[in-house]
Automatic annotation (TrEMBL), chain A:
InterPro entries: AAA+_ATPase, ABC_SmlMolc_Importer, ABC_transporter-like_ATP-bd, ABC_transporter-like_CS, P-loop_NTPase
Segments of this protein annotated with the region Disordered: 1-36
Protein name as annotated: ABC transporter domain-containing protein
Record has Protein biosynthesis as a keyword: no
Domain called ABC transporter: residue spans: 36-276
From TrEMBL, chain B:
Subcellular localization(s) per the UniProt record: Cell membrane
Keywords from the named record: Cell membrane, Membrane, Molybdenum, Transmembrane, Transmembrane helix, Transport
Listed transmembrane segments: 15-35, 55-81, 93-114, 126-152, 242-261
Higher taxonomy: Bacteria, Bacillati, Actinomycetota, Actinomycetes, Micrococcales
Source domain of life: Bacteria
InterPro entries on file: MetI-like (IPR000515), MetI-like_sf (IPR035906), ModB_ABC (IPR011867), NifC_ABC_porter (IPR006469)
This protein's name: Molybdenum transport system permease
Domain ABC transmembrane type-1, first and last residues per copy: 55-261
Amino acid sequence: MSDLDGTVIGRGQGRAVGRPGGGARGGPGGQPDDAARGALVADVHVRRGAFTLAAALAVEPGRVTAVLGPNGAGKSTLLALLAGTLGVERGHVRVGDRVLTRTMPGERDVHVPVDRRSVGLLGQDPLVFPHLDVLENVAFGPRAAGVRPAHARDEAAAWLEAVGLGDLARRRPDELSGGQRQRVALARALAARPDALLLDEPFAQLDVRTAAELRDVVREHVRAARVPTVLVTHDVVDVLALADHVVVLHDGDVVEQGDPVTVLTDPVHPFTAALADLNLLRVTPITPAGAGAPALLRSPSLALTVPADAFASWVEKASAGVTFSTHDAWQLTFSPGDVRICGVADGTGDRPGDGAADARADDVSARDGRAQLAWDAVVVDVERGPRGLRVRTTDDVLVDVAAASAVALDLRPGSPVRLRVAAPDVRVRAV
Amino acid sequence: MTTTSVRGPGAPRLLWLPAALAVGLLVMPVVALVVRASWATLPEDVSSQAARQALALSLGTSLAATACCLVLGVPLALVLARATGWAADVLRALVTLPLVLPPTVGGIALLYLLGRRGLVGRSLDAWFGVTIPFTTTAVVIAQVFVAMPFLVLGLEGALRTAGTRFETVAATLGAGRWTTLRRVTLPLAAPGLLAGTVLCFARALGEFGATALFAGNTPGVTQTMPLAIYAAFNGAGVTQGAAVALSLLLVVAAVAVLLVARAWRPGRMAGA
């Protein structure tokens, strides 16, 4: 967007526009007013019926925090609290030094109404005003802030240029595609110069390519405008493309958070594991009975054997300051593509996920020099998967197999199977 | 390229007969009126002094009544559209009352409220020396009473359909309540507002019963077109020929108003 660098739209020399600390406003590429910008910090508690949300987050200007969680986890409630459409029971929301919401013992209650919070919102549905053309839609925020219509339109035109819609300024919203409408909504939200931006699955209704393009536009402008941004999503692609930080909500609680790569490659919570397309198995380790005997890992309905040396190395390994001990419950994560499956009935059709066949070997022996976990399970169901078919087995362990292998092994619900995964492909953590 | 029209599942044939009868019942009286009219003397009838007086009074009072309905009815519709709970339901039912009440009952009710010895009229007379019944003001009040529900219900429906999502968006963009009302809420409800206004005006123009009882039938003061037509058939005021001519004028006005309301759709004005 180098063409934007020179685009600074002056607006009444440093005129305050009804916002604390409001200084000179500019179009895209203009100097952001850092005095008014700050981190979005929230620590909120609210109860709605049987549901309780307790979440805290801090987002630096220009950074994106993704909030992940299944339906009903409290994502929408969290956004409503930040946007101010819902009040908190206890806690606070602030941007920099500006308190937007505060309900704390011993302090004066604060609840800045939605229209004075300066918190932008971009939802799944772009909600472009149908009675205004594209330019007037984008100019809406500046005009509401008291900017003269002509100036507001100039500013809007620059924002439209920035999101790649410069030539559609005079179109009616119903003449635009879904992706174009979402760009208009983004330009409109940014043109209002929000102190914080909330994105509520804004890419969910777009086709893959349009969504990818729009993610680029969002990332670029969130960085350029230095807006702290909260992105609520189900989609792991959104996280990888946009997020600097991930917060996983479940049943109203933050169950894990961290940088996206760590959270997604080494998930703690079953929801995160499912999102990252990983199997997550909680097991109780049982120390080998004698020297050289395989160790046993017990899950609710499975018994996994693991070679003694691999087990010993896991026990010795320290991770994130936690030393594994055999007293802990362990959590195993591994990809469905790394699990090898073989039918138990004939005992010959050992089929790895990549379709290559292996000679059947001793369960706990090293194969290709790699120790393996092995266990017996039963097929629960079979569905289409990323690499052919995806087989759900006991305790929801997923296995990816080529369709041909599934036929050869006669995999159908109820079929007994023997599963194996190489020990190095398994991440282990104490829980 | 020839196109074969694919017929969707239509109504059962058996329904066509009653449907045709319904159309006949609605349209034939107007046809009879057109046939009965003496076209030769029509221009003269319509331009007679009594007729012109009635026409001017009707248009003037109907416009005034529509203006009153807008000033009072738009806020009421805004409140009703966003109100919830039993109180709002009761209020909604009360607003529709003039629709189901015979207009003559409305006229009597207005008389008991604003008459010289009425509930409020008594005080108006005693304190301010203001007498409302049998004045042009009474005509306007009667028209407002019967026409207001058309505006309120039309606009309220449009507001509910539009929902509050766009208003929330406007708020996140920094728009206060008045800005949101002016730039988002009312423009989005404009089709409903226009349709409601048109119906409201048409109802005021055709108002007879409440006016007759509450305002009387004084030529030039309270004798609107419907009253002039009624009086003519009772052998007073304008001639019967003029009455028929005035009736035709009302029919033309009503049809024009309804066509305008039907033709206008959001987006059409854009001229895409």
